[in-house]
Amino acid sequence: MSWATLVAMTHGLILENLVKRFHTASRGEVVAVDHLSLAVKAGEVYGLLGPNGAGKTTTLRILATLAEADSGTITVAGVDRNSNPMGAREVLAYVPAEAGLPVRLSPREVVRLFARIQGVTDGNNRADALLERMGAASYADMACGELSTGMKRRVVLARALVHQPQVLLLDEPTDGLDVHGRREVLSLIREQAEAGRTVILSSHIMGEVERVIDRIGVVNHGKMVAEGTLDEVLAQSKTSSLDDAFVALVHTP
């Protein structure tokens, strides 16, 4: 068995030399993602960290098939994302920083709709169970436009999990949640990894990252500047906390 085959079998997500450029009127060509490579195992929570504008969200959007890279290869749970984007969508879920919920539909309608789109067997019951798990059951029949920011986050997470994806992409998943809600979401993230899913977590809250991650990748200007376990990243940055490591690695004042 070749090394490449072994990696593909044990890793839920593999990026190789991902590049994405934008052309702007004021700055000309901007390289948002600059030959980024990483591999995340099934059952692993990977923290993707970096300052604003580092390329994190662009990378996640490309992985989620919502944007196209200029070059590079991506394998999602064994599916070639570039040649088979629809197949990749069947095995992944993306939770963006913005809720993006239809304002007139209820949480129950939204999650059940996504269950039907994904062909989930017994999708209605699964949708209702997820809303209960996320603490949104008592709001399930309200219009999404009337929900608080925190409750919208819970609904978006339920929507993402309804088809039991193998790869979960999370962009600031606890944004707008109170302390209790944050703890619930972090617990849910660990549960997903323990169930064998691959999880990529992008967050600006270092304390949250430390609690749930197995490995960290720090990006700056689209490039990977440090990667490894928490202890390895601290050693690379010659610091004693993730906050200090982050500042040292991205040269943030």
Keywords for this structure?
single chain; 253 residues; alpha/beta; 4-stranded antiparallel β-sheet; 39% helix; globular
> The biggest beta sheet, please?
6 strands, mixed
Total beta-strand segments: 10
* Beginning-to-end CA distance, first to last residue: 48 Å
In percent terms, what proportion of residues is strand?
25-35%
As a percent range, the share of helical residues equals 25-40%
The strand order across the widest sheet is 6-7-8-3-9-10
- Helix-and-strand structural type: alpha/beta
Measured on Cα atoms, how large is the radius of gyration? 18 Å
Secondary structure blueprint with pairings:
Elements: H1 3-10, E1 11-24, E2 28-41, E3 45-49, H2 56-63, E4 71-76, E5 79-80, H3 85-91, E6 92-95, H4 107-117, H5 123-133, H6 149-161, E7 167-171, H7 179-194, E8 198-202, H8 206-212, E9 215-220, E10 223-228, H9 230-237, H10 242-250
Parallel strand pairs: 3-8, 3-9, 6-7, 7-8
Antiparallel strand pairs: 1-2, 1-4, 4-5, 9-10
